[in-house]
Amino acid sequence: MGKKLVLTAALLSLTTPAFAADMVAPVPMKAQVAAPIFTWTGFYIGAHGGGAWSKWSGMDPADPAAGWSSVTASGGIVGGQIGGNYQISNFVLGLEGTGAWSSVTLNSNSPFGGGAGFIFSLKNDYIATVAGRFGVAFDRVLLYAKGGAAFTRDKYCANNGLAGALAGSASGSFNRTGWLAGAGVEWMFMPNWSVKAEYNYMGFGAINELPVTTGNLVATPANVKLNIQTGTVGINYHF
Question: How many CA atoms lie within 13 A of 168 on its CB side?
C-alpha cells in the first residue's frame, strides 16, 4: 500500500508540469481603433487658373437716347485663394477670398468712336473676390454655391495715331466693386489635397469714366457698366 502511494505521488509530480504547460495564459486583445471620420472642416490655401470674359457697355450721358454700345474681350487669369470650411452633418459653410492677375484685354481701332488710325486699349488687369460658400458634401465630393463681392479695374489707353503737334493720347484707371454669384465642385483626392472646378458671374454697375488726355485728343465722359464671367480649375491644401 505504501509503495502504491509513493508511485502515485511520483506520477503526479511528473504530469503536473506538462499539464501546467498546456494552460497558456490568454493573449490580451487590443481594442480596435476606429477610422477617423472625414470632414471638410478646416482652413485651406491654394491656386487657380482659367479663362475670363468681360463685356463693357458704355453710354454717353449727354445723349442717353443713343443707347448703350457694347464691346467684349477675353483672356486668362492666374491667382490664389485662401479660406475656411465648417461642416455640419452633410452641409458645409465657408468663406473664401481670391485674387488673380488677368490678361483680359480689348485692342480695337474704335470701340466707342474715333477716326482712322485711332488706337484704343481697354483691359481688366486683376480680379478679386470675397464670398461665402454653401455646399452639400457627399463624403469627399463637395458641391457648392457661392456669393459675395467682386473687385476689378478698368484700364484705358488711347492714341489718335497722329504725329507731331497733332498727336494726342488718353489714359485712365478705374477701380470697381460689384457682386458675384457662382458654383463649383471640389474633390478631396488624397489626405489634405483637393482639386476643384468653378464658374463665376460678376456684375458691376455703371460708373462715370473720363480718361485723362494729353495733346490733340479730347475725351468725353461715359457711363460704363461691366460684367465678367470666369471658368477656373484649382488645387487646395487643407490644414
Answer: 16
Contacts of 221 (CB under 8 A, 6+ apart): 61, 208, 209, 210
Interatomic CA distance for residues 14 and 56, integer angstroms: 104
DSSP 8-class letter at 66:
G
Please, what sign has the CA dihedral across residues 144, 145, 148, 149? positive
SS (H, E, C) 78-136: EEEEEEEEEEECCEEEEEEEEEEEEEEEEEECCCCCCCCCCEEEEEEEEEEEEEEEEEE
**Phi-psi domain of 3 (left: phi exceeds 0; alpha: psi -120 through 50; beta: other):** alpha
Radius of gyration of the chain (CA): 36
Instruction: Give the pLDDT confidence of 173-186 residue by residue, as tens digits.
Output: 999 999 999 999 99
Whether the model clears a pTM of 0.85, i.e. scores above it, the answer is: no
Q: How many CA atoms lie within 13 A of 61 on its CB side?
A: 12
139 phi-psi bin (left φ>0, alpha ψ -120 to 50, beta other): left
Identify the three-state secondary structure at position 27: coil
Q: How many CA atoms lie within 13 A of 48 on its CB side?
A: 30
Residues 6+ positions from 25 with CB-CB distance below 8 Å: none
